[in-house]
Amino acid sequence: MTSFAYRGDLQRGRLWARLFAERMPAIDCRVVSELEGDVDATVHYLGTWAPLADYSRFPSLEVIFALGAGVDQFDLSLVPPGVALVRLEEPGIVGMMQDYATLAVMALHRDLPIYLEQQRRGAWLPAAVLPAARRRVGILGLGQMGAAVAARLTALGFPCSGWSRTPKALPDVRCHAGNSALGPFWPRARYWSACCH
Hints:
Elements: E1 3-7, H1 10-23, E2 28-31, E3 43-48, E4 63-66, E5 84-87, H2 93-109, H3 112-121, E6 137-140, H4 144-155, E7 160-164, E8 173-177, H5 182-185, E9 191-194
Parallel strand pairs: 1-2, 1-3, 3-4, 4-5, 6-7, 6-9, 7-8
């Protein structure tokens, strides 16, 4: 039987196994944490965010599905020859990244960590509120997600700077590209968001 091995959070892995059982019963879905140390020649497909240092335990492996937003974390020299590395595009992940980055930027912009600490101490010392236009956000990675985050934050009035390995042009974003541009990019932003390419 062909198997799909899920490597990650045990609870999420069990959800994957249930969905495979319902929708693709011909493929056995296993959670890798339950297989640690085993060599399994039936595993043809591996779903993981974090790469393995050694794939030899899966001698029949054909495809690695990267379960994150990108594949930058994988050292391609360690992926066995003939094994495809596939980046999944989960519906909704771009919106979730926009929400997460917006939450983080707004929490910092409106001094939420300071107020939570004051609440813990029973104090109330209001801080001056600056407009979003005076708080530049730096976005590291201007791929699909980084561009979406920039669009959301510029719509909220935050000026944005972005960096990517290769040149990009995004509306209302000061774009920087390549290693030589990292120096000028870093000091200009008040807040940072790291997005995959």
